[in-house]
Amino acid sequence: MKYRHVLSRRACLKAGGIAIGLPFLDCMLEKSVFGAPADAPVSVVSLMHGLGTPDVVLNRGYAGSLRYYQPLVDAKKVSIYTNIDMSAAADQPAVAQHHYGQPYLFSGFRTNIAAGFNVVPQGPSMQWAIMKQAYPQGSPTLFKVMDCGIYFRRGINYQYQRIYDAQGKNAADFEDLASPVDFFDNVFGKMPAPIMQDPKARASRSIIDYLVPAYQKYTGAGSPLPARDIAVLKNHLDRVRQLEQAVYGGVGQPPKTINVTRPMPPNLKYKIDGSSCGDPANVYRVSPKDFETAYQIMADLFVAGLQSDYYRFGNLSFDSGGGHTYFTGPGAYPDDANYVFNGNVHATYHMWNANNAGIVKIGTAHNFFCHRNLAQVLTKMDAKDFLGPNGKTVLDNTLVLVGSEVGTNHDVTRMFHGIAGGNGRFKMGLNSNDRIKAIELYSSLGKAYGMAKVGDGRDYKADDSSILT
Amino acid sequence: MSSPRLRPLPFLVGLALVLTVGACTGDIGRMGMGGPPGTGNTGGGGGPIPPPESKGIGTVDIQNTQDKAISRLTNAQFIQSAAALVGDVAVTGVDQVLPYQDRHGAFRNTGFAQDQPFDLIKAYDAAASYIVDHVTDWPAFHMRWGQCTQLSCIKTFLKNFTEAAFRHPTADADVNAFQPILDAAATAMMTYDDTVKLLVRATLQAPDFLYLFGDETLTDYQLASRISYFVSDGPPDADLYAAAKAQDLRNAAGLDKQIDRLLAKNVTRFASAFGFDYLDLQRATTRNLMADPATVIQLMNSAVASFASLVEQNRPVSAILTLDTFVTNDAAATWISGAPSKATTVKANPSYPFLGLLTHPAALMAMSNSVFGSTVSRGSFIANQMMCVPPTPPPPPGIQQTDLSALLPPNPTQRDIGEARMADNRCKGCHAQFESFSFAFNKWGGDGTFKTDPTLKDNGPITTGLGDIPFNGYADFLPKLAGSTQFHRCITDQVIRYGLQHTEYPPELVQTVLAEATKLNPDVTFPSLMKALIRQKIFTTR
Fold it and tell me: Closest-CA residue in chain A for B366?
């Protein structure tokens, strides 16, 4: 087994500065017994993209943007679904909005809308729910839920928060991780050295031995607090246990290293709230080339974290919920070699008209751009130079959910979903245009991980067993 | 330390989606608590009528969502609380260790709006280590809390230190809970100093330090903490703690004595924390596309200081909208005066003829979604945040982007577009409730500058969710808003939410607190509102 991780050529070319060695924590792997082959830990991530795949593109099959998945589908690494029905997300699904679709995507729970269109999902995302199912005592990794991406809108919570807990709150370890440098610094760059034989350092760990029962006093059966307060303190306790792993863990573990280099991504305002399609004169503008470079560097880091088992659950966003980035400049588009992006595609979706060739072209070009990048991330996850304990790639072992909160325009009745990995739990290699209810697909996925129920049950009749092996 | 930490991180309540217009009904609820717009009838309750209402500005019921959860100390409160234990020197710079926490549409001291992301919990550990590493006078520290430096004194130290840290007397069990640390320290043959450092680090991460617990009816100590964190953004001082211990807070005279003392002592920290969230200043960092980020931070500091000054000077709350002097730093003074300046206060000038905090450059950036000032985002901010007009629902499905071009003149301004929306039957139901509140600011750019373009109109009358309002420019409009009953009711609501750290309270409380505050000071000031709130029974309950 190799523990050396090498970033993509793209990232390396962009990189400079610090290279650090990181401990690979064997203790985090699922243990085998009596020499039996070790199995892979449960892991679920999503690749969300803010603008969906129009039906005119879906209808083109592999001649359209789905071409980028074809090698992975043929290799039985991925299954794609081009007729997912997410109608249960909203009362009027043919014209639903991002604030309905995004919280429902990969959760199956409808949302309440709070002031400013912030969403309050009525249940957890599948990543969080499966994590709780697989690890009732908490994920044994340094980080629990890694939610990151490249996006330039953050005025409303669903635009940058993609994974919710049982209370419908942001479940991620970091509230808004949208710059490759911030990702590196927070996830890799500041990792403490493992505590070895230093008695004082070992004594520091006793702080956790105090804190855990101190919080348990308020979260246990005898707690005098109301349920809402207990939920808050339970989450804090979970985080204290994470702290134990991240800061005080690894006693006696000889560090095996992977190499990750501090990236130098394009100079973009990664933390900006870049205005909207309603304000085209002032919206933040990004070239497709810079966006793609930033996204793929972020993907390299995200995948490196999965490969080194720093976390097992997460999301990597291609643009914000709703999209919103104004792309300007040339970008690869197979239908037109001279194509130049110039607009906020979110606005194009609002004006969607399948009979307007100009609008269709803009939407299609953006969709090609999006799926080319997503497929590239899946390919990176399938790298053979860093295999899991069962000898399979991260892509094989991780359930990867690919999708957007909307389909054509803001319609959620026909959507694209990609499903990869799952460590043999699901059929791979499918290219299905069968109509499948999202809630039934999600329920099948969840049940394969031992969950009794996924989503709010609205419009649920039966699991979609066709996806199971 | 007294100001909230400014960092370019996310904020909430982007309202761009309102731009995607729909055909909502526009029903924002019952107008007035006792009469139609413009009658001046504040409805409900008795007592004196608050400041005279401007003609044309009505009232509307304030939405009161039922939401509460235990509150954690904000970053500023964490630092103040730690400073009270280890001294100011040790906490200097620790704000750089703590990540910015979003206000999630509410005040950041509000429990239900607070998350516990891992980076924050990890930062508490780092902050505790940082603080311990920066204590410069350990002998004095030991004498203060344990009176000696022998391991035999450690339980005495723990008893004294945890009582101060937890803001209530501690039992033997609380002290014995630290035994795992004492055992580990003994095994490692650590010195008294090093053992105490571990204990301090643990205490600063303990639930009783980080969280503000409350029984259904608050104990004397819990009440002291609630008062103290409300008024001073920090833990109870010795006098207040002693009053709690003597049960003096249970009688009106004893309670009033402490409130008056604390309000006279220092309300700057309250003003900074409240003002930063109330004006939603964090948005300035992410909405700014033009100015140097360091300058924007300085502008935000100026806005916070200006807000604090009106609270410190016991000015009427209406001064928020009519202030004629800004407290400035170099960057803000230079920005407003238009030439290099080191003035610590500035007045309006012809190139920057400001009036009130909504025309402060940081506030303009924060509430504007674009350089030319989005009428939607500004209108929403003024309607929802300043006047408590209930937010309109999300755009209904069906009409995602309305073509208003037929209604627009050549080269339309943002106001032209806004007026076209309000003239369109599909749009006006919602947009007429809030968007026109922004029209008076038409000459103020989202880049924090004043525009002299003659095509920019900033006159009335306008149609709003609070009735029709006539005015001639922002300098006429702002005093009318400031004098309205609804503005006073709305700021009272905000003070209640901040003080209670949640949004769950009976609707009549606004009128009760406002009436009592008016009795205390006919001008209605922040201190009078705060005192009126603390006197209410609800303030003593969970």
Answer: A273
